[in-house]
Design a protein that fits this description.
single chain; about 230 residues; mainly alpha; two-stranded antiparallel ribbon; about 65% helix; transcription regulation; repressor
Length: about 230
């Protein structure tokens, strides 16, 4: 059996040997045997584990990757693969929502709702009924700084315009994704300032990131399959 020195694996993966030891301490890589002098004796199995976790980290995150590799060590391949599958499904939902957002931005004259036209000024109850979004959610988004309706100077009630309606529909779409709040603010505020092109640019950049993560996920899954084959679990 061929043994690999820590430095050999570290060089291939462009990491430090101390990183290899950290991964061992996390319990995501089987503990290697030791030579009489105490040196670690890594095998092809260890190399496959290290390749897999390095490929999965950027695609699925450290937490899920570690969970998956611990399951693989216990021989629970099906649970491990379904966890990965769920994350891929989440990314697909994210892309669908981003595509819908971009479609809405690319068609600024798109009707806001079927056979309905928003009034020039609307109350929170009216805008909630028009958009199908609960008024509590609208208040929360206002608190988060995503929308900024004006107030009636006489009674203090919120006043919503068609622009706010479009923002609320955008947020309703974006909240189905894992966009960071700042991304949402950037898109929504661009709409508020009538900068549709800027909002489109932010959304398009988000889609580029989604495409990249999709490719990373497939590469991570490829390395996971390679690991299972090395372990005889396929």
């Amino acid at each position: 059996m061929r043994y690999y020195k820590p430095i050999e694996i570290a060089r291939e993966l462009h990491i430090s040997t101390s990183a290899l030891r950290h991964y061992e301490s996390w319990g995501v890589v089987p503990a290697p045997d030791r030579a009489p002098n105490g040196y670690r004796l890594y095998t092809k199995v260890h190399l496959a584990y290290f390749r897999c976790l390095r490929a999965m980290f950027p695609a699925f995150g450290v937490g899920l990757t570690c969970q998956v590799l611990r399951l693989i060590q216990n021989g629970d391949v099906d649970t491990a693969f379904w966890l990965v599958n769920k994350e891929q499904a989440n990314l697909h939902h994210e892309k669908t929502a981003a595509d819908q957002t971009l479609e809405l931005l690319q068609n600024p004259e798109l009707p806001l709702a079927a056979n309905k036209k928003p009034k020039t000024h609307m109350s929170i109850g009216e805008v909630a009924a028009f958009t199908g979004v609960q008024d509590s959610a609208i208040r929360h988004w206002e608190k988060e700084g995503l929308i900024s309706p004006e107030r009636d100077p006489e009674n203090g009630y919120r006043i919503f315009t068609p622009m706010h309606v479009r923002q609320i529909l955008l947020i309703r779409t974006l909240r189905r994704t894992v966009y960071f709040l700042e991304n949402m603010k950037e898109i929504v505020q661009a709409v508020e300032h009538h900068s549709i092109e800027q909002a489109k640019k932010v959304t398009e950049n988000a889609l580029v990131s989604i495409h990249q993560r999709n490719r990373q996920q497939f590469y991570g899954v490829h390395q996971l399959v390679e690991l299972c084959q090395e372990l005889g679990l396929q």
